[in-house]
């Protein structure tokens, strides 16, 4: 497009850079005799920059300032401003208006899309939160949870187990005293020791439910777990009991635990009926013996469930037998005389006498469910003991 020479004659600058010189066309006049001639002005860059800025100010043009913009950039902005000052034709004005309207329309659509995207993002986050809550709910329902048991609940379960054991003994042991007298004394002593031993096997080992036959190193056996437990207790007793409790809780559900407990029950029954204790068992038919063994198996299975219930608590369990209770004391909460002694609660006739055997060990709990005060104990179940030579004579 041909521009009016008079309108740009005073505003045109052309320069070239050669070495340290600037070639500038004089902006004041454009004589025909030296039209297009270049006049060399050796001046520094800063001086030339100042001339461009001065030219812009004299022309009413605002050029950007700052150290980051050299004369090239300032001249570019000045040229752009000059072109913008040129008159526009009607077609160009209309086209410019249309472009402006189109840009505004695009900006409105962009804003609308941004609001819509914001709503979608909020909805997406809400749905993700719902999914996470639902998933946590499902997993939480499947994940075993630890709940503290009240002392009275535990004492009730232990008492019920004791009653079941006593009923089984009355039903399947020798009823005739003359038959019992025929059993050698050595075998009688072995029976008493084994009765306590089977009970202690479950209630003194917090990891009794772990299969010790695992020799392929895919998981720790009970001895290894007990060693870890003892090591942790030396470092941090409270954390050790919490770890033991969580281990029992996580192992208390599922087919593997039930199967393992069934295997243990079968093993205990087989060992018991082939031990010297068989001398005190009542003979019977094959059907009677099968029924006897099934009931004994159920008894051991229930004992295993209760033992795991106890070991899943934060408290620490200890069992006390004949070696720990050598002298009888009727006022001690840790022991009670066997019913054969017919001893009342305030009867002190047997006090100070030796404890011969513990038919059932005492179960004590140390600490509380907050994993504190492990130096304080409480008796969940007293031991049932035979005292002195007074069995059957009292």
From TrEMBL:
Keywords: Coiled coil. Residues 92-130 form a coiled coil. This is Uncharacterized protein.
